[in-house]
Design a protein that fits this description.
Shape: globular
Low-confidence stretches: 1-12, 14-19
Distance between the termini: 49 Å
Mean pLDDT: 88
Order of helices and strands: HHHHHEHEHEEHEHHEEEE
Strand content: 15-25%
Oligomer: single chain
């Protein structure tokens, strides 16, 4: 077809130099697909973001970010859910990860890191002794009853980030921003990650935990069409395309990794994608 088109144009006297034939290899969607194909050969989370080849421009479409259920999220989250949404071993692994990483962020004695937990609920999965080595801890989520019950934070805010992705905090307010197994529900991820960068202090870190479970009707379409390794690439790309973070990294923290074709077979699968703000 392409050969026929070129031949026809040449017969009409159109010069080759004047033709602007798009190169499909430069299409960001094609580039994204090729990255996903390559990921299926990888067998571990860490390798996904070790040497990523990002598409030249933001590759995600409106369809990618659309959900099966586009009704108001406030209705879906109106009833409190006082439960864990992932396996208990995955929860324990995330808590252990926080316990190891949070103390490293203490810059000097007497200056404890401030933490913001996005898409929070009745628990933030922080260690029991988190107050010993962290300062202000703030939760932002959808259900006030759940947030009121969260004893791991000092303050909470109720906000639908899909409706309003602007965080209600001043610039440089936090040292850490966490998000536990909820990034797949956000349909304006680039705006939100830019906001995360804005509220992080210089040298601050975002830590987004990913699992292999979700509410399918509220997860973005792209999430449902891709596997666990591709999810790591997608979230890493969110940080990359803001232009406001240093290169992201990823680590699998859940116990007993088992992989088949890019999909974890572990009921307690949990990975963390993290990035340090570049300011």
């Amino acid at each position: 077809m392409l050969f026929f088109l070129v031949s026809t144009l040449l017969s009409m006297g159109v010069t080759v130099s004047s033709l602007q034939i798009p190169n499909p290899l430069m299409n960001p969607r094609f580039q994204l697909t090729s990255r996903f194909i390559a990921l299926k050969a990888k067998g571990n989370v860490e390798a996904v973001l070790a040497t990523p080849k990002w598409p030249d421009t933001w590759p995600f479409t409106e369809n990618d970010l659309r959900r099966q259920d586009e009704t108001n999220d406030k209705n879906f989250y109106s009833a409190p859910r006082f439960c864990y949404h992932v396996d208990e071993k995955a929860v324990a692994a995330l808590t252990d990860y926080y316990a190891a990483e949070f103390p490293k962020l203490v810059k000097k004695e007497g200056e404890k890191p401030a933490i913001l937990d996005l898409c929070a609920s009745h628990v933030s999965h922080f260690p029991k002794d988190v107050s010993d080595y962290t300062g202000k801890r703030v939760a932002l989520g959808m259900n006030e009853e759940e947030l009121k019950d969260n004893s791991q934070v000092d303050e909470y805010f109720v906000q639908d980030l899909n409706e309003n992705p602007i965080l209600p905090f001043e610039d440089n307010s936090f040292d850490v921003v966490t998000n536990a197994v909820s990034i797949d529900y956000l349909n304006r991820p680039l705006e939100i990650c830019k906001e995360v960068a804005r509220v992080l202090k210089p040298g601050g870190t975002a830590m987004f935990a990913l699992s292999n479970r979700c509410f399918p009707s509220k997860a973005i379409g792209l999430w449902l069409q891709t596997n666990d390794l591709e999810h790591v690439f997608i979230v890493g790309s969110y940080f990359h395309y803001t232009g406001m973070f240093k290169p992201p990294t990823a680590v699998e923290v859940g116990p007993n990794p088992i992989w088949v074709g890019g999909q974890s077979q572990n009921v307690a699968y949990l990975s963390v994608v993290r990035a340090t703000v570049d300011k």
